Amino acid sequence: MSLRPGIDVADIDVTGIDASGAEPQGRSAWVIVLSASSACIGIALASGTHLGLVLIALPVFVAIVWQSPRTMIGILPVWMVLLGMLRRLTPGGGNITFSGDPVLIIGPIVILLLFFVAASRGAFEHRSRFATAVGVLSVIAFFEAFNPKQGNLLAGLGGLLFILVPMLAFWIGRTLVDEALAVQIIRTIAVLGLCSAVYGLIQEFRGLPSWDQQWISTNGYQALTIGSGVIRAFGTFSSAEEYAAFLSISLVAWLALARKDTRLFAPAHLAGTATVAVALWYESERTAIFLVVLAIGVMAASRLRMRPIGVLAGGVGAVVLLVVLGGHFGGGGGGTSAASQLSYHVSSGIGGPFGSGSSLPGHIRQTEKGMLQAFKSPFGHGTGSVTLAASRFAHSRTGGTEFDPGNMGIAFGVFGLIAFVFVLWQAVKTAYLGAVIRRDVISLFALGMLMATLFQWTNGDLYSVCWLIWLFLGYLDTSLIRARAEIAARPPPPPAISWRRPGELRPHALEL
Question: pTM of the prediction?
């Protein structure tokens, strides 16, 4: 059955699913909760930092997960966005790197607990091809944590926190997220992005507060510096890269919410959208700007229910227009002010994406090398080899490539790379079908978020972003399952009326 030319609902190839279920009860659930809490407190005691914050936050979060998983899903984005700021403001937060700080474990522990709840409610039932592909990639990530090539087991276990745990949000989205909660999360992302954008603009043009300046001085984060000592903003996050990624999905959220039934008062909505866009521009992350423009073009084309080739053309056309405009307005050498240097850094890179001053060719070469590693080492170097856990625990020289295809080739080998490509294809296909069939806020946001974070879905440095990607993919997977079930349950249309000329035999008479 086809909803329109080029969109075949049968491609979903799944049956209905019942997402209802009672709260988990019994001793087994308490064992899970107590074990997770004990593990987190043990890590806190061993590290000796931020113990007070953990002892306060973790029991509260565990209680919320136990009482109302849905509420915890709504709270978790706020925690993830404010995590970097909390670490800088609380005692013991000077060392922001992957240092065994127990505060970093709270988010993964909560995701694990929510995953166990989702599993108890049938998250693995009625799997689509997409869900099966995600499951295969997750299994590969788990077993690759024990690959001896990454150095030691601690590096592998640390890699699981960066790569596998965010992917588990896919199963949470399949079971625990409904339409109202999904819209609530999108609104939360929009508001959080706006607040962080305002704070980032203050960092950029009014100067860094003492806690932010102390963090830079302590860690020597050179990636923040542009030109003659101009510092990039990083908002409430731990890195400028994560700040740019979250601003990107926040901008997508503002655009997706720009419908009569979901937007704010029109001038306020426009002001919020513009503020996030300006903050993203002055953050000076050129890759993020390219991707968010790609996302805007794809969202606009899918909103018009174009065929896949039209959606692709819409995204590529938006990027080409950006390059043309960047080349036209990106001349000059930039002024001495922070604003002019940051703006010039962006516009010059956009106008010449393959020029000598652009980092894009280097990223492409690194990604190609990583993908070739999949064939040189078919079984990979281990889950932790492309994360910060490798440098922390194993002092590995492998390192990541910043983009998913290269990282998958290095970490998981040829089988993992193939599995990821299939997941990538199914994810984009699912998001496209959701956008053109549903045409609602959730589906448009999910498609835009995928494009705005393209090839960054397993980037463990993006604490606040990656799990949201997988959460909405899981929700979309279930929503399309239900859409197909509803269509299959509809009565067949009445047969068409056929006319016969006088004396012409009926069609069934010809079969006699």
Answer: 0.85
